[in-house]
Design brief:
617 residues, alpha/beta, 61% helix, 4-stranded antiparallel β-sheet
Length: 617
């Protein structure tokens, strides 16, 4: 599903949000219904009891009978309060997972979304907005469940109020009174008008608060980026201190925090204004109701106890109507944010999982074909790969180098080969079949890759190497030794259980940049895939050190097919074949010896870089 979804009705969006929440949290909705029923009914116990007691007292009911009524009413109310408290606690305990549920849904989307979606600015902006909704408003599910509680309680309150207070509006035959009829009309019109005004007031201020919230979310997002991305680790700390950027960052944080605070104050002022208007409307309604009930009592049409019962019942009814209107406006807000939430969750992956098994040739070779392959990154106007045509057979032990200047399409080609991106045009085949036809997991198991921007997570060392909670210790240790970390292993406090970094454990180890690079190589060795790719993971090293790493790694993968990517040529002289990329296509190919003898980009780059590794020549 693309970003341009056909706009659905608010009711349909609301139904879909509830359905999504109910998949894992149906008990929360059920608990909310029972809680609303008890909460809506309980106030009427004392309302009805008060009317009965007042009329009984004025009617001369014997004191023992009066006390029996009182004790019975209090007992029922006490039991109802206990039941309400128990149900409320059960409901609240379940509601607490609203935030967790939304975070889990969003994290699952990030984990299983196409890689290209992670670089889609529009999609990522939707995600950031939802993160702010979680931080500031409690999340979409909270915005559903909280109004639901209010709305159901209000509905039960209104239904009960109609039953309790209906006799107030029944005229006895022959007791018509012009003033009473006029007051009835005025009361009905006023209650309806005030309720409608209350709804429009809430809707108006909610729309204004949405605009202010968006401004607040933007300020808060920038502030959080500075606090959690720039100030969170030692990597950025070096630059901050060397270049004296502390004042710049401090002003940025303080400025954004101050702006966010102003927006938050504005939202609070708007909320206070909204509450003040609603309180005024409620006061007008209550005053008219008591006046109407008192006038009927003055005419002798109802008892004094009935005045209390009916007036209190109608006031409860108005409160119930307000809660129902609050639910309506709250759900309207939830729909506004929820529409974008659903668009984010339901954004379709372009990667379709195939059904074919990756075939194995008798000689374990891999036939790679690219037929008129072009690729353009989203939001750009030029192809990163343009009309690439390539055909080569990779046998066990074959080593291929891909070289070229920065931005020539080398890494993009590898991303396409690994199905991190889908080609814009053309087709890539492995062993004669479109790579999209293969089962994704089985296809990706063919490759073991060390990317230029590899990452080691703040987890146990063994989990980093195995990329799993299940670690084959002997295999992991052997992989680390082969990657040149044998000496480092001897100094680790907890062996493979040692944490990478100190984020979660004081005993964790901060590995150097070179050691982390070797850990990434150890992870690639551990996977033991038949096809190994090194995508410039040593770009930060000097040319001679890079050459040493590549030659060492070449010995480790000697029996596997391997592709090495670099813009520095001496590192790839040991390869059987070299592909030279430029402007998204292959412009030369051959061995190092052949290419340095040819006019072209390779010899031009070789001559320009010769001074870096003259000793290696």
């Amino acid at each position: 599903m693309g970003m341009m979804m056909k706009k659905e009705s608010d009711i349909k969006i609301l139904r879909r949000l509830f359905s999504l929440y109910a998949v894992h949290n149906r008990s929360t909705i059920v608990a909310g219904v029972f809680c609303a029923v008890v909460t809506g009914l309980r106030p009427y116990i004392m309302i009805v009891l008060s009317g009965i007691l007042i009329d009984s007292l004025m009617g001369g009911m014997p004191f023992p009978t009066l006390m029996a009524w009182l004790m019975a009413g209090l007992g029922i109310n006490f039991a109802a309060e206990g039941l309400e408290a128990w149900l409320r606690e059960a409901f609240n305990a379940r509601v607490e997972n609203c935030l967790e549920r939304q975070n889990r849904d969003m994290n699952e989307k990030s984990l299983y979304s196409d890689f290209e979606n992670l670089e889609n600015p529009e999609l990522q902006e939707k995600k950031r907005k939802q993160e702010q909704v979680v931080n500031v408003r409690g999340g979409i599910y909270w915005m559903l469940i909280w109004p639901m509680d209010k709305g159901l309680t209000g509905l039960i309150t209104v239904i009960t109020a109609v039953v309790v207070a209906a006799p107030l509006f029944v005229q006895d035959k022959g007791s018509g009174h012009t003033g009473l009829a006029v007051m009835s009309v005025i009361l009905a019109v006023t209650v309806v008008a005030c309720s409608w005004a209350s709804y429009k007031n809430s809707d108006y201020w909610n729309k204004k608060m949405r605009k202010v919230f968006d401004q607040y979310a933007k300020c808060n997002r920038v502030s959080n980026y500075i606090l959690h991305s720039i100030l969170a680790g030692s990597e950025t700390g070096k630059d901050l201190r060397i270049f004296g950027q502390q004042e710049l960052i401090e002003k940025g944080v303080l400025g954004q925090q101050q702006e966010a605070l102003e927006r938050l104050k504005e939202m609070r002022r708007q909320a206070m204004t909204q509450s003040g208007i609603e309180a005024t409307l409620t006061t007008v309604n209550c005053g008219l109701i008591y006046l109407y009930a008192a006038f009927k009592a003055y005419l002798g049409m109802i008892t004094v106890g009935s005045v209390v019962k009916y007036a209190s019942g109608i006031i409860q009814c108005i409160t119930g109507i307000k809660n129902m209107l609050f639910c309506a406006t709250g759900w309207r807000q939830a729909v506004d944010y929820g529409r974008e939430y659903l668009e984010y969750l339901e954004f379709e992956n372009r990667t379709k999982d195939g059904s074919e098994q990756v075939p194995e040739n008798e000689d374990q070779s891999i036939l790679l074909e690219c037929e008129h392959v072009s690729f353009r990154y989203p939001g750009t106007e030029e192809d990163a790969i343009h009309d690439l045509n390539l055909k080569m057979t990779l046998k066990p032990g074959d080593h291929i180098a891909i070289v070229g200047r920065n931005g020539s399409g080398k890494t993009t080609f590898i991303k396409l080969l690994c199905r991190l991106y889908q080609v814009t045009e053309g087709v890539i085949r492995i062993n004669g079949r479109d790579i999209r036809d293969y089962t994704y997991q089985e296809y990706i198991d063919v490759f073991s890759i060390v990317f230029q921007d590899y990452r080691m997570f703040s987890l146990e060392l063994g989990e980093n190497i195995a990329a799993s909670e299940k670690v084959d210790e002997e295999r992991a240790l052997d992989s680390m030794r082969k990657a040149g970390l044998a000496h480092r292993l001897e100094n680790l406090p907890n062996g493979l259980d040692t944490y990478v970094g100190k984020e979660f454990e004081e005993s964790g180890v901060n590995f150097s940049g070179g050691e982390r690079q070797k850990l990434a190589i150890a992870r690639a060795i551990y996977k033991d895939a038949p096809f190994v790719i090194m995508d410039e993971p040593t770009a930060a090293l000097d040319p001679i050190s890079e050459c040493d790493v590549y030659e060492s790694f070449d010995r480790l993968v000697g029996h596997k097919a391997a592709i090495y990517i670099s813009h520095r040529l001496a590192s790839c002289r040991f390869c059987d074949k070299i592909l030279v990329f430029s402007q998204g296509g292959v412009v030369q190919n051959g061995s190092h010896e052949a290419l340095v003898e040819q006019e072209g980009l390779y010899r031009e780059m070789w001559n320009a870089q010769a001074q870096w590794y003259a000793d290696a020549g």
